[in-house]
Amino acid sequence: MIQINLLPGARRAKRGGGGGTSINFAAIGAAISARIKDKWLAAAVIAGIVAFGAMAFLFTSQRARESGIRTAEDKAVQDSTRYAAVLKDRARAQARRDSALIQLNIIRAIDEDRFIWPHVLDEVSRALPIYTWLRSVTYTGVAQGTNPPAAMKSPAPDDPTKPTKKRRVEPIIPRDTVHLRIVGRTVDIQAFTRFWRSLEDSPFISGVTIQKSEVQLENGKEVTQFTLDATYTRPDSALLRREPLTLTQR
């Protein structure tokens, strides 16, 4: 068999016992180098191929990243829509609760102010000692009922010039300040002192002060006429005891 060497400069492959064929890469590189005359053109072609591969890789990775971001965006939009509906329902429920709470507070304030004078008379009669009688129990200053609880007000902001965030605030329900004046007489100065101290111990009356105390004659006997000023206080609801009003018919 005649063998022709097509690669000049390459050695003839030795025949081996295995009968396999080996590839001489050095010879192939030398042949390609011999055929390519312009080295810069080859470098430009190789650089173009590398750049194309890099652009293809970047394009593929960017498309995959864009797909992942769009999926996350769609999920975030769905979550935002769902949470917006939940927050809207929560705000509506809070508005209903606040409206009901305001109405309950108004009703409670009106109910508490209905029994001011029964509480005052009950505490005064309980504190009244022997040998002492009252001539009048009246109020001083502004009369009760000038500030109805229904005329509630919203609290003013701390700084009107600065914008404040919308937050839930408790409305201010106005309460009347009831000032009392008690005029009485006694024949025992110690009884008057006990009466004064008993009024101070009452949870419904505070700020008891002596406005005037003088000795007068009544039916030819000396008596001490006194004038006390006090203020009605609204105690805690735990101190109040409510009992049904009953009327016994005879």
Rounded to an integer in angstroms, the radius of gyration calculated over CA atoms is 51 Å
Could you spell the SSE succession in H and E letters? HHHEEHEE
The beta-strand count equals 4
Strand proportion: 15-25%
CATH architecture of the largest domain: 2-Layer Sandwich
Indicate the CATH class of the largest domain.
Alpha Beta
Neighbour order of strands in the largest sheet? 1-2-4-3
Query: Could you tell me the mean pLDDT?
Result: 77
Find the CATH topology of the largest domain: Alpha-Beta Plaits
Parts with pLDDT < 50 across at least 5 consecutive residues: none
Let me know the largest β-sheet. Answer: 4 strands, antiparallel
Q: Percent range for helical residues?
A: 40-55%
Q: Which word captures the global form?
A: rod-shaped
Structural class: alpha+beta
Terminal Cα separation, in Å? Answer: 151 Å
Number of helices: 4
Would you write up a description of this structure?
There is one protein chain. By secondary structure, this protein is of the alpha+beta class. The mean pLDDT is 77. Strands 1-2-4-3 form a four-stranded antiparallel β-sheet. Helices cover 44% and strands 17% of the residues. It folds into two domains: 24-114; 115-153 and 173-235, Alpha-Beta Plaits (2-Layer Sandwich). Strand 3 and strand 4 form a beta hairpin. The chain contains four helices and four strands. Helix 3 (116-127) runs antiparallel to helix 4. It has helices at residues 25-35, 39-113, 116-127, 189-201, and strands spanning 132-140, 179-186, 205-218, 221-232.
